[in-house]
Design goal:
2% strand; 68% helix; mainly alpha; 2 strands; 6 helices; 205 residues; globular
Length: 205
């Protein structure tokens, strides 16, 4: 199978995965919770990815669809993949620890499960021959620490981002039906992006 076809199928597969996760979550958790989890997960991850590309952390060459389309920095599929992962790891950790477990413990397990996925995904997909994203190149940030030919920075980012995202979603949901959930998520988003900017500019990565 041609390499270009594999890349296209990979991108379409992410979109299909997002739709499957969304449909199942809608049936089991209801529309309101599903929309909050998927929208917050997408907006947070896509925003952080845009910051990372702008800071020269990595690049996404030759994808089909980018969001936003201009500048063509981050593929739509990246945000959709992150968003699909959020409710999946949340439901698994709730099965393991119980739905009433402290949000920080659930979030920590979510982050560890997410990085477990990434330890398999990143070396396979970012390396040869697919090269769906690139860690090295002209004008890009040089990394000091590597694992499986992937920057350690990336794995740390997965733990922190997924753990923070799911912890914040649970805190908001447990606040009760009268709480201004979207407003609180907007505050969390602003804090997350501020922290992401600081972390990405640390010199020791």
């Amino acid at each position: 199978m041609p390499l270009s076809t594999i890349r296209i199928l990979y991108e379409l597969g992410i979109a299909l995965l997002f739709l499957v996760v969304a449909a199942r979550s809608w049936r089991t958790r209801g529309g309101a919770v599903t929309v909050r989890e998927l929208v917050f997960g997408f907006v947070l991850s896509q925003s952080v990815e845009l910051l990372a590309v702008q800071c020269g952390r990595y690049r996404y060459p030759d994808w089909l669809v980018y969001f936003p389309p201009h500048p063509a920095w981050v593929p739509l599929g990246v945000g959709l993949g992150w968003a699909a992962l959020v409710p999946v790891v949340m439901r698994i950790s709730e099965r393991i620890l119980g739905e009433d477990a402290p949000p920080w413990r659930l979030g920590a397990l979510d982050g560890l499960m997410a990085v477990g996925v990434d330890l398999v995904l990143d070396p396979a997909v970012s390396g040869e021959p697919l090269r769906m994203w690139l860690w090295r190149g002209e004008g890009m940030t040089p990394y000091r620490f590597w694992l499986l030919d992937v920057p350690v920075f990336n794995f740390v980012g997965w733990v922190l981002l997924v753990g923070a995202c799911t912890w914040q979603l649970r805190v908001v949901e447990r606040a009760g039906p009268a709480a201004p959930k979207w407003r609180r998520l907007a505050v969390f988003l602003a804090v997350d992006l501020a922290v992401a900017v600081i972390v990405m500019r640390l010199p020791w990565w």
